[in-house]
Give the backbone structure.
Amino acid sequence: MDRRHLLKNSLALGGVMGLGGCAATPGAAPGAAPQPVSTVPLMDRPPVLAPVRARADRFFDFKVCLRPFRTKGPNLDVEQIGDAMVVHNYGHGGSGWSLSWGSADMAVQKAMSRSPKEIAVIGCGIIGLTSAITAQRAGAQVTIYTRELLPRTRSVRANGAWTPDSRIALTSEAPANFGQTWEIMARSSWKTLRQYIGIAGNPVAFSDHYYLTDAPRGTPQPVDATVMPLPPPTWAGAPTHGEDFARYNDRIRDITSFPQQLTPDINPFPVKYASRSTNLFFNFTEYGHLLTNQFFAAGGKIVMRNFHSPSELGHLPQKVVINCPGMAARDWWKDKAMVPVRGQTGWLIPQPEVNYGLTYRNVQILSKSDGIMVIALENGELKGYNNSDESVNRAESDRAVKVIEDLFARFSVKQA
Ligand SMILES: Cc1cc2nc3c(=O)[nH]c(=O)nc-3n(C[C@H](O)[C@H](O)[C@H](O)COP(=O)(O)OP(=O)(O)OC[C@H]3O[C@@H](n4cnc5c(N)ncnc54)[C@H](O)[C@@H]3O)c2cc1C
């Protein structure tokens, strides 16, 4: 690689995408006018950002999943089946990864009211696994009965970011005190997730997320032929839209990072408006391994089994059961409040040097250890509502990655 090429590369990484606004930008094009010195404190300026190699031919996987949305919010009711006490723990919509520990705490508290020595957990998605570990921590011996292990569950087909109030209930149907319950769940989950930060392999980690828009946020965005209108922002004060999806994030503003506008002098992107927040996310592979190992290390057992009717739970040797079947509760338990919400992710070959995510023109990307996830948003929450089609729509992912490819192509134009 010759020196000119290196210079151009460092411009792409450090000059254009890096500390925009610094007077002595390293690698600035020869003869370029000096940039004004930014008044933004150094710590608030975006760091050097590596470009995403966003091209459809770098997709190596696609995943489709149904969010187990329950219009009334997650079901944590207790019912008696034969001589077994069944504590439900399902219906976490687009928030299962986020709320899992808090929800498990609530379910296990109910289960332990009978002081059982042994507990059965149905399901090995993120809700089942965290319920099982929480029950072990409460002193019970736990057996998981499940049709699929974690890597084959719908859980690992999710996005996996901290989104504790995504499609969690309809305002019109959630119980009056659900906001309070949600807050306890979210805070207790956050505290437990805290214990998984900083572990080798980064099972749970933070990264910056950039929200890029062509018009000021909160105002109508320009629409182009390939993408839909931007979903409205979901932070404090923003209007909810479409159905009456309940939003509760305002209750935990003290622990959640909300987007802050970047001033033009430090906006590293070739779009007019950028804001940034720092978000928690899950690296599924590492986190899944860690949880499964923790479960086995504490003496847990797994039995592969496919249940066909609730009455079968009454015949298990364990007389206290935590029921975590996810979306299957709609058919298996005839829970009519369950509505599938389809979602698809495309995965680009991992780029460890990319340590951020961004949202632009209804497309979101997030760099994780096992790939760069690309999602086509579309009218935000409403996309996929009541759609149970779990087949891959390749065109959807191709269209989404093109938006990001075009965005990064604009950097080259700016450099030329
Ligand atoms: C596209 C998409 C993006 C998402 N993004 C996020 C996000 O960013 N953040 C977040 O917090 N959440 C997100 N979610 C939501 C999250 O993935 C779900 O809420 C969560 O995975 C639900 O977990 P679960 O354990 O209840 O269900 P599942 O993962 O479906 O697990 C159910 C378990 O029950 C077992 N089971 C079912 N029926 C039977 C039966 N009859 N007999 C025996 N076993 C049975 C299954 O084998 C499985 O082990 C997203 C979801 C989707 C679809």
